[in-house]
Amino acid sequence: MTPTTPDESGTGPGAGADRGISRKTLLRAAVAAGAAVPLLATGAVALARDARSEGRSLTPTPFCDDGDDPTPDQIEGPYFKPNSPLRTNLVTPGTAGTRLTVSGYVFGRNCVPLPGVLLDFWQADNAGAYDMAGYTFRGHQFTDTTGAFTLQTIVPGLYPGRTRHIHVKAQAPGEPVLTTQLYFPGEPRNNTDAIFDPALLMNVRDAGGGKQATFDFVLNVDGDPGTGEPTDPPTDPPGGTWAPGRSYTAGDRVTYGGAAYRCLQAHTSMAGWEPPNVPALWRRE
User: Fold this and answer.
1) What are the transmembrane regions (predicted)?
2) How far is CA 33 from CA 16, 119, 187, 250, in A?
3) Neighbours of 67 (CB within 10 A)
4) What's the confidence (pLDDT) of residue 42?
């Protein structure tokens, strides 16, 4: 994946005029008018799990059937690095900054949760700097069988020209990569950042000495609502040495579908993570 230049415009398309008023349209209108967006005060935006502690009843998430587009894409920016470590916790002992937990789900257009989705996160440190020599505040993970993910990190620092944000690439097995960014509500620079999109605001609340945030991705794919049980009769697997349920380490070589691949990240294979479907794990040779 080739980094793009910082001055590219990457905001995703808005909901069409013929699709009615959606939550994204309302958010954009509110921000354009300079109004504060009450993320945790209206069921039109807040996630259902965010409301449990508030004693309110909200429409169940996700909002993938209200006429909205899937999660908008944004520019990659100049600081992406491939081959990030497989980990859900980007914080190490002595890390400076306000602790932040980001959690949520990944759904398809049809509101079906998507397991095995690759999520690759990267961000600035507390001082607003990106680590280009190593992999500090960089890591990838996969959604679990319920489509859920959790990331342990810090609130990123500010740097010239941008508001606070977290970068992410999301890829369902065998599907295109969504590159986007997540934002924080109430940030003064949200109003002056040319890339900022209110549709990508996380729900954020204080939690002890840190913060908790939630965001649900909706990918432009149809989820499989099947039971997850093997087909009967089972489907014959493609020829090759790759197989699910095996532990692979970086440098291992396999064949799949008549092509050779080299392992980039240590992992235990599973159905849906075939080499051509997960370029973060396998590189074709």
Assistant:
1) 26-48
2) 20, 33, 15, 51
3) 15
4) 31
Instruction: Give the chain's residues under pLDDT 70.
Output: 1-68, 225-240
Sign of CA dihedral 76, 81, 85, 86: positive
Query: What was the pLDDT predicted at 167?
Result: 98
pLDDT value of residue 261 = 86
Distance CA 59, CA 64 (A): 12
What is the model's pTM?
A: 0.63
Structure tokens belonging to residue 80: 């992406």
Is 52 exposed, middle or buried (CB count within 10 Å of its CB: 0-12, 13-18, 19+)? Answer: exposed
Neighbours of 128 (CB within 10 A): 14
Of 218, 239, 258, the residue at which a domain comes to its end is 218
* Residue-level pLDDT at 256: 80
C-alpha to C-alpha distance for 16 and 10, rounded to whole angstroms: 18
Quote the pLDDT of residue 226.
Answer: 46
- Nearest C-alpha neighbor of 134 from the set 182, 90, 166, 168: 90
Domain that holds residue 256: 231-285
At residue 110, the pLDDT reads 82
d(CA 211, CA 26): 26
Residues 201 and 215: their CA atoms lie apart, in Å, by 8
Place of tokens 């740097």: 159
Q: What's the residue count for the chain?
A: 285
Q: Are residues 129 and 155 in the same domain?
A: yes
Regarding whether 183 and 253 lie in a shared domain, the answer is: no
- pLDDT by residue (tens digit) across 234-264? 333 334 678 888 888 888 888 887 778 889 9
Q: Residue 145, Cα to own-chain centre: how many angstroms? A: 16
Residue 189 token pair: 């620079």
